[in-house]
# Entry
Amino acid sequence: MQHIIEMVGVSKIYPGGCVALRDINVKIEKGEFVFLVGPTGAGKSTFLKLLFREELPTRGQIFINGKNITRLKPKEVPYLRRRLGVVFQDFRLLPQKTVYENVAFAMEVIEASPREIRRRVPKVIEMVGLSHKMNSRPHELSGGEQQRAALARALVNNPDVIIADEPTGNLDPDTSWEIMKLLDEINKKGTTLIVATHAKELVDAMKKRVLQLEDGRLVRDEERGVYRCET
Amino acid sequence: MDDWSETKREGFTAVKLRTIRYFFKEAFVNLFRNGWMSLASIGAVASALIIFGSFLMISINFDYIAKNVESQVEITAYVEDSVDKLKINQIELGIKSIDGVKEVVFVSKEQALEEFKKQVGEELLEGIENPLPNSFRVKVETPQEVAGVAERIQKIDGIEEVKYGKGVVEKLFKITYWMRLVGLAVMAIFAAISVFIISNTIRITVFSRRREISIMKYIGATDWFVRWPFLIEGMMLGFTGSLIAIALLAAGYSYLYDMVKLNVPMIPLLHLEEFYDYSLGLLLMGTFLGAFGSGFSMRRFLRV
Ligand SMILES: Nc1ncnc2c1ncn2[C@@H]1O[C@H](COP(=O)(O)OP(=O)(O)OP(=O)(O)O)[C@@H](O)[C@H]1O
Ligand SMILES: [Mg+2]
# Structure
């Protein structure tokens, strides 16, 4: 079976010489839910950035749906990104736009029809449980609400894969748990999820596949894993 | 589903109407958000085009005046005194056979004296033997041929001397040549200045919105989708600047035109309407400068 994501011998050395990833080999199947864990500076964000071409690998190949994305022309990159929904750690919502407008904007950018936008946006916002804040701007929202708005935007174009970098980063345990449940629901509908996180309890509780990075090396790849092996 | 067939939609080809509306809305919003810088850009384009336009109008008029003077130029060929009537007819035929000659008129010694008398007064020449030679007045088809034709007449046997408005015409042409050269240089300098100011204006917009631009790109916007509003903003700046330039040039020109007509009516000048095509050219040029300036400042921010 063809994997939705495959990394072959991927290394990333940043200009300046910092080695963020060393010889990573990973296959992720369509519909999987994968946690990416590891101490700070281990290379989790770098791993995710390689997937949506914020960064290019120094060595190795990355395939998404069988297509080698390290060989994409700049012109092709937007069409790769349209298949991936990214939830950034700092949300990256547009401050002067409301929640509705932020989510709609993701559809405008790919030139969806207004009718489609009017139909789809409220549905997705409802899905993340933010209908009551549809017309608020980001600064009027709590961290958890901004997280949901960012998630709605990542979801709205029906991506094949959702990539989330520490989606529970600054949230209290209850809110974190709600977000995780939401991600799990999305995953159950068939979307592949890759989530970088420090939230040990959540990872342990969810019993998903865990990729552990340490100093840029993939040190553990475990089905139904926990955050860190007790030794 | 797995191939990126949509990739072909990049660029102008499949831009939808609502997307174009979005582009213009964005452009207008930014134009007003950067009020002062927008005004500076418009001013830069306007001054560049006013200076260029002035040089253009002056040099076109010089051309026109030069042509006018030239068309009045005729060649006078003086015949040697020893030449007899029969030879004179032969010479006339010889001149007529030269390419480019339009008209040949024979002026005899007597006629020349009559004319001269009219000019300086009868009494002065009383009792003196007629010193004037027989001559031909020759007109040519096109002004540029004057020198060549004059030279060939000179070679005809029996011709003593050939004269035409040599020097005056060449001087005028030299002036228009330099006018054009200086005009071109000044234009190039001011075009560069406008591009610089416009690209800085747009750069401020782009810089203050670089986060937004990177977000757009991360959620799958193409470069052209991001770029168009800025290009339109630049074109509107350039367009407005050139409209102002054209209006001021037209006003200034008609004022000077009236002044000249009133005070030195013998100087031939082109009427304002003759510059209609040029004003369209200026408009295009200003719009292009604007687009170029904004496109120039965009490049760096799209690379995400
Ligand atoms: N743009 C960059 N230029 C240079 N070095 C970088 C860059 N981005 C990351 N690094 C370095 O690469 C290494 C991995 O960084 P990365 O952000 O991937 O870690 P992380 O696992 O996401 O850490 P955290 O849990 O703190 O977010 C770090 O040592 C970091 O300093
Ligand atoms: Mg990180």
